[in-house]
Amino acid sequence: MAGGFVVASEGEGGLYNGKITWFVVLSCMMAAMGGVIFGYDIGISGGVTSMKPFLKKFFPDVYTRMEEDTKISNYCKFDSQLLTLFTSSLYLAGLIASFFASFTTKAYGRKPSIIIGGAAFLAGAALNGAALTIHMLIFGRVLLGVGVGFANQAVPLYLSEMAPSKYRGAFSNGFQLSVGIGALSANLINYGTEKIKAGYGWRISLAMAAVPASILTLGALFLPETPNSIIQNTKTYDYDKAKQMLQKIRGTTEVDAELHDLIKAKASDNSKNPHTLILQRNYMPQFVMSIAIPFFQQVTGINVIAFYAPIVFRTIGFGESASLMSSVMTGVVGIVTTFLSMMLVDRVGRRSLLITGGMVMFGAQMVVGGIMAAKLGDHGGLSKGYADVVLVLIGVYVAGFGVSWGPLGWLIPSEIFPLEIRAAGQSVVVGVNFLFTFLVGQTFLTMLCHFKSGIFFFFGGWVAVMTVFVYLLLPETKSVPIEQMERVWRHHWFWKKIVR
Questions:
Q1: How far apart are CA 410 and CA 99, in angstroms?
Q2: What pLDDT score was predicted for residue 8?
Q3: Measured between alpha carbons, how far is 35 from 175 in angstroms, rounded to an integer?
Q4: Which of 74, 230, 241, 310 is the right S-S partner for 50, CB 3.0 to 4.6 Å?
């Protein structure tokens, strides 16, 4: 097996031995393409909804307000429920698909869910690129939502289960890094296609989603299944296949301690409905986190930037091309800081990054809201100096998210569930994430119209709440083997009063 460096994690059966092998690295890189398709869609939708030819064809009312109505407020020019439905319909479809994905992931494994996700996303990309009517456009978005629902259900679990426990944070944060790469790629493509004078650039932007979807779908055919999933779906006590896979991915024959913990987790699994099981008292901490973490991730306001950054930048006075380039700049910041999070998460821990990132986001949002309240009226724009300051502060905000709630909002839920409720727990995480992504996406332009600059104070308030929540109620999970995670709740000052 390809070389690596030895890691050891404490387990009940002794030490977890192994290397970070090329087999694991390549497998996780391929699986993380699920993050690329998610990020590409996030980035592409905000860009095309600011392109004049796209608006003129599908949303003529918005186009007319933007170009000809001089009386309407800066904050209200893009207020359209149909326009927001284009963006948010994907997440409503993903919410529904995630519960079907939960069954598939538990009953058949992580790999089939990844394949289904890639194939559905590929079909949606083709339909969007060829769209002639708003109905084709929305139906294509629904197919994209099915793809993202399956991929977001399976990929974080796959990465957590394949990675050595000591470096699980870095591997799992690869999902958010991939989301950032996908979003940046989309922003760069939007910046280029917006300049096509014939006006069909938006078709290229939407259709290019087929590239990462094709790579994911074809590559997933060759992915190995995780040892955890192999054991979960083994009907007899013959665990040789799981042991052989463990030996292959860890690069050593000494895997008995880890295998012992996997078998023990399998023994605690039962035939009860996992969505019912997760409601039991002993799983209450995990259930609370499965709702709170994705909820807080969305009410940071990140999708204000992710979906509508070009619209926000146009609101404060940037031109169409400058708005798209500003989105590229914030995308670069997101990737760099997510990579930094990968380097730090297994050293300083999850809690420190979440608390620090929360304070950075809160400060940036308060100042941006203050500048817009004081300097941006209903007409005209910010002066160049203030507009540049807002751009820098939004970059600071994205940096705070990139080191904290961006990657860790997916990492922590993927590592806290015991095997018997893991697929169900992840489906709750994905479902809550998509529900609030849909709600934020569908209501943001209306909120911007009515709240105006107060929108930044609204999301900043939630950032303050979630930072306190982490400080009080989230235990540290750094370096804890995934099949021994229940011990963190038994030693926590609050949760130890609930779990038995």
A1: 17
A2: 38
A3: 5
A4: 310
